[in-house]
Structure formats: structure tokens, C-alpha cells
Amino acid sequence: MNKVNKAIQYQWFWSTMVIGFALTLSIIVTHSNRSIFLYLNNWAVRSSPVLWSNLSILGDTLVALVLFLPWIRKRNDLIWALFFAAIVSIAISQGLKHLLAIPRPPAVFSNNTINIIGPIYKNNSFPSGHATTIFTIISLLIFTIKNTKLKLFFFLSATLIAVSRVVIGVHWPTDIIGGMLTGFLSSYIGLRIYSRLNKKLPDISFSVISGIILILSVFLMSFYKIQYPSTLLLKNTLGVVAILNHIIGVYLNDKKRILLTLSEVKGNS
After folding, report:
1. Which of the residues 20, 135, 176, 192 could staple to 162 if both were Cys, CB 3.0 to 4.6 A apart?
2. 183-192 pLDDT tens trace
């Protein structure tokens, strides 16, 4: 990784961390966590509950993997970095959830005063697991792509997915910011670990990643239960698209390999 890319990485990482901590501190100092929650949660009745529940499941770990893995399966560096980042994010998020044991909004407000879409969760609020998942994956892309507009698109998309957890009534605004910080930190650490170990790590073949994607997609469609009935169409559509992407990708990869083999044979003859 050259110096320019490292500078860009540092810029995105530190600016996100500083802004995230500043927002969290301002919410704590002004005691505005509840008021911001109520404002955002009211979006559930001002717009479509179906929209927010579908946005919410994009932060589900399995759904997010099925959505993003097909686009990075040729990048050994990103696969390994994501692997390390996932370990770090799980350790941090689950550790904080059980250590802090902050009650969720449904445990603080009565059910008739807030809008709850889907199942009611009351415990282990901070940080948001969905926000952590989506920001871990998105920040990995932000750190490694060059297109600034695409970076902003990914960041805003992840933010919208994370905010949906407040709109559907299961997380505080600070949980979302905590998930963003955890995601960015985990992704950054994952990349740093990979950069130190990359020469010792084995290559993950295209066929192995494609096989994993296929298994995850079939499991998502056939066996994975998401407690939001309105998201069934999106869940199955993502699975079908990932399977079709797998089939096309394998075909194109095999075709490329055959052409390379024929070219080598022709060159040696």
C-alpha cells in the first residue's frame, strides 16, 4: 500500500472516530439520547414500516455477507481483512453489550408510546450489532477503493441502514454511533493485521469463496428465519441474485482459465 493510500486510510479512519466520539459526547452532555430517539422513531409512522424493516435486515450478518461477498471474492486481501475485522468486531461489540448491559428503548418506554416494528428486544443495547456489521463491511470498502463519490455513497447507505434500527424502535442513537465506531475500528485493525501477515497467509481460491457464497445463499433462502415477514421478498431476492452471480462468475472464471491454458499450450507448441 503506497503512502497516498495510507494517508487516505488515516484520514477516513481518524475523521470518523473524532466525529463519532464528538457526537456521542454531545448527546451525553445534552441528555438528548431519548429525544433524538423519539424523533427518529416517529419516522416509522411518517413513512413506510416496510421500508425500514427491509433496510434493517441489510445489517443482519448473513444478509450482509450474501450481499457483499460476491463483489470481493477475487480480492484475497479483502477476504482476509474481513475475516480479521469480523473477529475484532464480534469481540468488541459482544463484550460491550454484556459488560455495559444498557437497556433498549422498549425496556425504558411503554409499548404504546413508541413505534416498534418487528420483535421487541429489551437488553444489551450498546452497540448496535447491525450497525457494527454494516459499518465493518462498508468501512473496509471505503478504506480500499479510490472513488470518493462511491465512498460517500457507501457511507451514507450504511448510515441509513444503521438509523433504521432506531426507527424500528430497538436501539438508541448512541448505539448506532457506537456501531459505526466499532465497525471502522474493526475494519482498520483487520487491514493492519492482514498487512502484517499477508506473506504468511494462504491464498483463498476463487472456487472456495464461490462455494461459501453458494452455501450462505441457499441457507439464507431456505433455512434462515428473519422475524420481519415483510422482508421475505428482499431476503429471497438477495439469495437468488447471489446464486446467479455465483453461476455466472464460475462460468466466466472457468472460461478464462481454459483460454489461458489453450494460450499457454499454443505458445509452447
Report:
1. 176
2. 999 999 999 9
Q: Which helix (H) or strand (E) holds 18?
A: helix 3-30
Q: Is the pLDDT of residue 7 over 60?
A: no
C-alpha 230/C-alpha 219 separation (Å) is 19
> Hey, what's the torsion of the CAs at 215, 161, 51, 222, to 10 degrees?
10
Q: How many helices and strands, by DSSP H and E, does the chain display?
A: 12, 0
Our CA dihedral for 236, 241, 247, 251, rounded to 10 degrees, sits at 180
Where do we find the cell 455495559?
100
Q: Is 180 in contact with 162 (CB distance < 8 Å)? A: yes
Q: Identify whether the C-beta of residue 58 lies closer than 8 Å to the C-beta of residue 134.
A: yes
State the residue for C-alpha cell 455513497.
153
Cell numbers standing for residue 103: 437497556
Do residues 104 and 122 touch, judged by C-beta distance below 8 A?
A: yes
> Does the pTM exceed 0.85?
yes
CA pair distance 108, 144, nearest whole angstrom: 40
Q: Closest by alpha carbon to 234, among 152, 133, 161?
A: 161
The tens digit of pLDDT for each residue in 38-95 reads 999 999 988 889 999 999 999 999 999 999 988 888 888 899 999 999 999 999 999 9
Grouping H, G, I as helix, E, B as strand and the rest as coil, residue 191 is: helix
CA angle 158, 162, 165 (to 5 degrees): 155
Q: How far is CA 185 from CA 10, 92, 151, 209, in A?
A: 11, 10, 17, 25
Burial (CB < 10 A; 0-12, 13-18, 19+), residue 17, is middle
